[in-house]
Design brief:
Order of helices and strands: HEEEEEHEEEE
Number of strands: 9
Number of helices: 2
Radius of gyration: 18 Å
Length: 133
Amino acid sequence: MGNLKLLVVGILVVCAAILNNSNLYAQGNVKGVTVIELAQTPGEFNTKELTLKPGQYQFKVKNQNVDKDLGFVIQRAADKNVDVMKSAVPNSFTTELIKKGETKMTGVVTLEKGEYVYSCPLNPTPQYKITVK
């Protein structure tokens, strides 16, 4: 019975660590990751173009008075006409749909030198340019 109790305690410690890390992740407090804040209004983003350095980013996206759920995704510019589900940069989707007045984060996105586009396939918005140099 002692081993079972020790196993249960170990599982609880691991779960607590995962929850703690996911809270940090959701808040954008990941060490070495730059948070980029964007807001969507009906049919568009407030920021039309970004120029960034290669690195790791999280995108914090706010639904600013859009009466439907929103999303966010990044694609390489060369793939901008390819199905977004097939061509999304890894971790670039918001982790949940963004309801009116809410803000959600993407995962940690690694951007290398090159050109990308970001958009909301649900709003829908134009594709906005990200240049990484």
